Amino acid sequence: MKKVFSKLEKHHLIFAAILFLTFLLRFPSLFEPFWYGDEGIFAAVARNLNQGGVLYQTAWDNKPPMIYLTYQAIFKLFGVSMFWLHLVAAIVVLATAAIVYEIAQEVIGEKRALVATAVFGILTSLRLIEGNLALTEIFMILPISLAMMIAVKRKFDYKSLVVAGALFAIASLYKQVGALEAAALGLFLFFQSRNFLEFIKKGVVLSFGFFIPYAVTVGYFYPKHLVGDYIFAAYTYYRIYLNESPQYAAIINIAKYLPVIAAVLYGLYKKIRFKKVELWHLFLLWMAFSFLGSYFSGRTYGHYLVQATPATALLAASFSKTRLKINRARIIFALSFFLPLMFLTRLIFADFITGGPINQMRYWNNFIGFAAGRESAGSYNDRFDRNVNTIMAVSDFLAAKKAYGESVYIWGDIPWLYAIANSHNPSRYVTSFHVFGVPNGKEEVTTALNNKPPLYIIKPQSSIGYFEGLEKLISSEYTFVAKINGAEIYARESGK
C-alpha cells in the first residue's frame, strides 16, 4: 500500500514540477511592456467595448469575436495591465497542459502523459514560436484540447460529441482555422464507427454542437444589422492573408495538404486491412490538421505554430508506446506525413527556427538585466520594440493634459495607446493599415473625423502612407503642439 501511494505521490510531484517549469518559462512575459501590435489591436478594441462600443460597428479588426471578448473581460476585471493579461494566458496554457495530460493518460499511459505535458509546456512557453504572447492561438488550443479530451474519455458518445462540436466552434471564433481540428475528429469518427449509419449519426451530432455557438453569434449581430460586417471582418477579409504568401505559394498550397491526405489514407488502409484503427491515430489526424492551420495563409508568424503544439506533444509521447514494425505501408506513410511537415516548417518559419534559440537567450538576458537593475526601463522597452517608449511618453503627455478618456485619433500603428489612455476613438479603425486595407476605409475615417473631431490627433513614425483627408483636417482645425519620440501631436483649436 505504501509502495503504491509512494509511486502515486511521486507521479503527481513530477506533474506539478512540469507545470511549475512551464509557468517559470512564462514568468518573464508577465513583465513585458505594451509592445506587440496584435495584442495592442485586441486591447484597443476591447477597451472600446468596455466603453459601451459595439464590435465591428465602433471598433473593428479582422478576427472573429472571441479574442476581443476575452480581452474585454480581463480588462473589466483587472484594468489594462500586461501583467494580468499574460497571467491569464499562462493560466490558459497550464489548463491546456493538464488537459493534454488527461488525454495522454487515457490513450498512452501515465508515464508518457508526463512526457506529453512537458513537451507541450516547453513548446508553448518559448519565444521561439512567440508562445509568450496572449494571441488567438494560445486561447484557442484550450477549447480544442478540451473537446478532444471529452470525446476520448466518453468514448465518442453523443453527449461528448455535441459538447466537442461546440468547443471546436468556440476555438474557431478565436481564429478561423480552429475549425480544422473538428474535421480531424470527424474523420476519426469515420474510422472508429462500426458502420456508415453510426458515423452519419455521430457526424450530425458533432455538426449540431458546432452550429450552436455560431447561431448565438449570428443571433447577437443580426438585430444590430452587423451580420455582414461580422462576416467581412472575420472571414472575407482573411483572403488578403492568402494573397500575401511567399514566392513559393504554389508549393506551399500543395504540400500543406499532404500530411492530411497521408493520415487519411493510412487510416483507410488500417480500417480495410486490419478492421481497426488505434485511438492514437486521432493524434495523427489532429497533428495534420493543426499544422494545416499553421500553414494555411503561408504567412511567416511564429505564433501560428502554437496551434500544432498539443497534437505534436501527444504524438511525440506516443512514439515510445507504439512498437513500429518497418514495412512498406509505414515507410510510405512516414515519408508522406513527416517530410512535408519538416519541409514547410523550415520554409515558412525559417527566421524563427534559425534565430529562435538566440532570441530566447536575449529575451531572458533582457529580463534578468532589467530585474537586477542593470538595465533601464527605456533600454528594456527598446529591446522589444522602439514604439514602446513612444507609447509611454505620449501616454504621459495625455495624462499631463488631463486627456485620459478623451477622444483621440492615432494615424499609425500604436493601438496600445488607446487602451492605456482609455481614449475614445472617433473611427472604428484603431490602426492605419486597416484604413488602407478596407474598401472605402479612408473615406469612412474622413467622414467620422469631420463629424466628431477628436481632441488630439497623433501621428507616430509608424503610420502607413499619406492620408489626404486627415492632412486637410489637421491644417484647417488643428495646431501642432508637441513632437515626442518622433510622434507629432496636434490639438484641436478652441472654438472649432
Short structural summary:
The protein is mainly alpha-helical. The protein is built from 23 helices and four strands.
Percent of sequence in beta strands: under 5%
Low-pLDDT segments: none
Q: What is the terminal-to-terminal distance?
A: 83 Å
Category from helices, strands and their pairing: mainly alpha
Biggest β-sheet description: 4 strands, mixed
Helix content: 55-70%
Strand order of the largest sheet: 1-2-4-3
**How many runs of DSSP E, i.e. beta strands?**
4
Overall pLDDT score: 92
What is the overall number of helices? Answer: 23
Q: Assembly type of the shown chains?
A: single chain
If you compute it from the alpha carbons, what radius of gyration comes out, rounded to the nearest whole angstrom? 25 Å
Encode the helix/strand succession as letters. HHHHHHHHHHHHHHHHHHHEHHHEHEE
Shape: globular
Q: Structurally, how many domains make up the residues?
A: 3
Chain-wise SSE layout:
Blueprint lengths: L1 H25 L10 H14 L15 H13 L3 H27 L1 H15 L11 H18 L4 H15 L7 H13 L3 H26 L5 H8 L4 H4 L6 H7 L2 H17 L6 H15 L13 H10 L9 H21 L1 H22 L5 H6 L4 H14 L7 E3 L5 H5 L11 H6 L3 H11 L4 E4 L8 H10 E7 L2 E6 L4
Parallel strand pairs: 1-2
Antiparallel strand pairs: 2-4, 3-4
